[in-house]
User: What shape does this take?
Amino acid sequence: MLQAGYAQEIITPPTGVGLAGYFNARPNEGMYDDLYVKVVAFELGGKRFGLVTFDLCKIPGALFERLETGIIAKFGRELYEALILSATHTHTGPALGDAEADERTRYALDQTAGAALRAIERAFMNLLPAELEAGSVYNNPYGFVRRYWMKNHTIVTNPGWGNPDIDRPESDFDRTINIVAVKQGGRIAALLCNICNHGDTIGGNLVSADWYGRFVQEIQHQLTTGLPVLIFDDCSGNVNHFDFRQKINQTSYAEAVRIGRGYAAIVLGALKELEPVSADAVKISNTRVEIPHRRISPEELAAARRTLETVPDIPKGGDLESQDLANGVPAALRYFAQRVIDCHDKSRKSHSCRLTSIVIGNELAFVSLPGEPFNGVSQAIRAAGGFKYTFVVELAQSVSGYLPMPECFERGGYEVQPAVDSAAPEAATELIRGALDNLGIADHRGSGR
Assistant: This one.
């Protein structure tokens, strides 16, 4: 019999801690709303497993290390290897990568790791008999592929509102929203949702869970219950909320509220269509995939050095954003030129990433992926996997950066710009193969092409 339990803890950092997701420093100056670590724990056939989400832009290496050490010490390696740890991707959460930065950042790192361990422990203490219902809806009106073919046949990321030189988006993306309801005693006790979009609608220096938090609040408001709601970010390395057909302000807290409530309406409308899914067995698999790193040619290196020699060092007021590269902002040109040099001088040959899959019954699968893969990665996994409901969970289990599709590298754009240990063109293909192998999908030739 399936059993399920839930717990959450607040992980809002103190003021002064740097916020993640931008190139420039943004010290926390207050908060719109709290951040959480949330856990849904399961037990089935004598196996314990679970899903853990953090309201963070990403889980940095320092936090992964604390979690691995703490979970294994407290619960054992078997449970550690049966948990998927992921971040929602809010760009107004703390940057915890540098544990030695200052006292407040160290406090925030300790607080977040400790909160996760408490939530995991309490979630498993709360196990009760449960059933699962699932459904999906192909409706994502708040997501847009952010890479565009321009009329001059180049690719630009975030080309600007109402830009007359836009031709078309580079690709389409999977608009599927997957939903799992954990039911106990005839009621919905928890909701798990898989949605593709970036969490960068607010900007500024105030902490917020972004639209993810407003989504949860609206679900709870409409259902008149404080039921736990977890969001798993589908592959959205090339997807965000900017609709460049319009000339409106799409960076504000109000925008986070609008999108969160909009997604909540879609999910609430789908609840009546959920169907029972079998939960008679669970299969948990772990593997590792080697992510090859970008190599810098002599020509690229020379061009970067020329940029630093010739482009004036003019600071930019406000946040330094990805579209500043396309707009030729001097601060952005110099920033990305230095990244090319650092990529050449400091990158390793590759790095290893952990992949975890949890398959419940024969219809429902959870697949973890590191970093920010382009949506083509999740499309390939769903197409070859054959499960009725596949939750593809990015920013999970290991640290990595953008993982674009191979053909995107020669086209340009922000996401394929070199950085230390940035992915090589073949990385996405290796990731797809590793994920499908881990699922036990034997014949997936051609996946990711």
